[in-house]
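Notes from hallway chat w/ T.B., transcribed later so I don't forget. T.B. wanted the structure written out for a chain they're using in a teaching module, and asked if we could keep both sequence and structure tokens in one place. Agreed to drop them here.
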Amino acid sequence: MTEKFTIEAAEALTNDELIAEFQIGFLDMGANLRKACICLTILERRGAVFPLQKNLPTPFRFAPEIAADLLDPEAALLLAGSPDAIRAVMKLPLDQQRAVANEKPIKIAIKKDGRIISAERTIYEMSVMQMRIAFGENGIVPWEQQGEFLHKSGAPNEGAPTVRVKPKIAVDGTTHEIVVNKIHVTVDDLIPALAALGYSVKKLYKDELAPVKVK
């Protein structure tokens, strides 16, 4: 029988020993997460419903990808606070996902005073746009290529304030379509668009045009 690890036992360890024990426990979490994701994926495929499905932690939103070895479970755990970061690293090979999630410095391109220069950042210091530009299917995109994208896209200087224009939204009284900045959008258009962004959308009323609940 394995001896129980206690607070008292941990207090007797050095910091380096505690870090080593933490890493062992964390790796076990990753292995167990993959197993749980495989089970969850199959259960959901079968249409099974069970209590633990409710309010699952962020990594379980990516259960099919973890189960299919498209997302490293350790990376999913480390990046659990940022679903955008998880989506960004999924383009990388598994070993690079893990390294990036463990704070590997990444050379990225930034625009400063109108010039494209390189800088080193961890994923926890990068914006969502920087992640999308820096990570590709073949690994980390060279910063020079990132810079070409910034130049062509006319990206603003890093740290420049973003001007947000509030869209004008109305409802057409005749067609009942939603009008966003003079563009007519139906509810049927919105549901798949929101779903593609990772939102769960449900109609609140049956058999009639209704608001949608996004969670």
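Follow-up for T.B.: The mean pLDDT is 81. Might be a good example for the class.
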